[in-house]
Design goal:
mainly alpha, about 10% strand, GMP Synthetase, Chain A, domain 3, 9 helices, 3-stranded antiparallel beta sheet, globular, Arc Repressor Mutant, subunit A, 3-stranded mixed beta sheet, about 240 residues
Length: about 240
Amino acid sequence: MELKKLTGPQAGSLKYDLLTALNVAGLHGSLTLQTSLMRLNAVITARYNWRLDEVSIGHTELARMWRVNERTVKREMKRLTSDGWLICIRPGVRGRVGAYRLNYPRIYSQTEDCWPAVGTDFVERMQEMSGAGRVVKVDFTSAATKPVSLSVVPEGTTGWPAVARRLQQTHPEIYESWFAKLAEGEETGGELKLIAPNSFVAGYIATHLLKFIHEAVKIEAKAAHHPVPKVVLSCRRQ
């Protein structure tokens, strides 16, 4: 999926459309979703750093902004990240303020059904911004690689299963088409070896998608207080 960056001369209108999509999705959803997306929009409009593409804010500040207690803040931030609206890029541990990034592919996919409620012109703009219809999907069902079964990956798991779970949450469309085809190779100290079913998949991921894997690996390693492993991508012998 080729996403349009929210920078440049049209950045203001692009951000406005993104916020509109979140607002309308909340209005079309449950009361819980309405509250969550209203709180998310408040954070975006008040504190989001578009240049760095992240927001760094403490629970005390969020509690004051949302007029709730910090226990509610922790519960809400966990919901927003587990549901995929936000990506945690730096966990808030040991007194350090956490940092989060908007999960654009997830936001677009989760709000798409509501776009027509705003208008056909809005649908066209959102499709252009999200790259809808340009997702490359390839069927590799005949490949020998066995996908990770994320439904049985418990909390606290490390290595590729944990990284794969994060990629599925943060980049669901890309995960389904590409990352789900990867398998973990033989464990080697300091390296995460990933094996693609063929050279085409390995080449495409290496060229276009490896940055997403690196980011997920870094986040999971830091959350587990482990050294960040080197990612080694290869393919099965044909």
